[in-house]
Amino acid sequence: MRIVVSIKQVPETTEVKIDPAKNSVDTEGLTRIINPYDTYALEEAVRIKEASGATVAVISVGPEKVDESLREALAMGADEGFHLSDPAFEGSDPLATAYILARGIEKLGPYDLVICGRQAMDGASGQVGPSLAEELGLPCVTFVRKIEELKEGYIRVQRMTDDGYEVVEGPLPMVITVVKEINEPRLASLKGLMKAKRVTIPVWNASDLGLDPARYGPAGSPTSVARLSPPPPRTGGEMIEGTPEEQVRILVRKLRDAKVL
Ligand SMILES: Cc1cc2nc3c(=O)[nH]c(=O)nc-3n(C[C@H](O)[C@H](O)[C@H](O)COP(=O)(O)OP(=O)(O)OC[C@H]3O[C@@H](n4cnc5c(N)ncnc54)[C@H](O)[C@@H]3O)c2cc1C
């Protein structure tokens, strides 16, 4: 069995700075990490590998720096890494990203399962996994919190819902997106990181993938970011004085006045 994990490199920050000229997040000088949701996807793949002898390939679309994240994924237990990179990919929206990824995954050869995170920490559209499934012509189950059974040509999973979960089964190959409830990701070991340094990671550009130029970059992106703004700063809270009973009475009155109750 071969599992493909799609990982995105994201900036490690909760402080968002906007580049008004580019209408995008200013990532200059920020440390870059594997999108946290993708570490759950990778951990799940590595656990399947450890339990059943599957092989795990990681794939990512992004600039040169993405190489570091692919090597970290190898150090966490992936067997192969593939980097899809081309300056012309810049300005690709989630649909175009899914198109690039799909052609990259097809170039890898046969595979059984594709695992994505539920969303990226920065873009957070949650669209790439389902769009990727559509591009590959595969079924997709989102928000997977547990893989109950996985065998040749068959998977059964628990899909998280607002008030519980659904059990969904289907044929392989399939694309799933996972939530953080699925496992506790391991950290890359130092030994693994040293070993990963020596691995050759193929880098494929648009012509290696035989891409249609009308389907990536700004020209191939049906969506555009009209405006980006940071969240408004939090206003200071209000302290309510008095005994606990008085505090509750005052709080209820304030909530009623504000028509919250
Ligand atoms: C008009 C437009 C222009 C943009 N231009 C740029 C740009 O120039 N440079 C840039 O970096 N971003 C750019 N973006 C953002 C970029 O399109 C998205 O970050 C990317 O498509 C993924 O979407 P998302 O972050 O919403 O991921 P989500 O859909 O939230 O991610 C879900 C899952 O999909 C997988 N995934 C997502 N992205 C990747 C990836 N790149 N490689 C592998 N797996 C992935 C991961 O498993 C992830 O957990 C642009 C977006 C728009 C709308």
Q: What does this 3D model show about the protein?
A:
30% of the residues lie in helices and 26% in strands. The model has no long low-confidence stretch (mean pLDDT 94). It has helices at residues 36-52, 66-75, 94-108, 128-136, 190-197, 206-209, 244-257, and strands spanning 2-6, 9-11, 18-19, 24-25, 32-34, 55-61, 80-84, 113-117, 140-151, 154-161, 164-171, 174-178, 203-204. Helix 2 (66-75) packs across helix 5 (190-197) and helix 3 (94-108) packs across helix 4 (128-136). With 261 residues, the chain is of the alpha/beta class. The strands form 3 sheets. A 9-stranded mixed sheet has the order 11-10-9-12-8-1-6-7-13, with helices on both faces. A two-stranded antiparallel ribbon has the order 2-5. Strands 3-4 form a two-stranded antiparallel ribbon. Bound molecules: flavin-adenine dinucleotide. Flavin-adenine dinucleotide binds next to helix 1, strand 6, helix 3, strand 8 and helix 4.
Helix content: 25-40%
The N- to C-terminal Cα distance equals 55 Å
Structural class: alpha/beta
- Sheet having the most strands: 9 strands, mixed
Shape: globular
In CATH, the homologous superfamily goes by the name HUPs
Number of domains: 1
The count of DSSP E runs of length 2 or more, i.e. the number of strands, is: 13
Bound molecules: flavin-adenine dinucleotide
Query: What is the string of SSEs from the N terminus onward?
Result: EEEEEHEHEHEHEEEEHEHH
Classified by CATH, the class is Alpha Beta
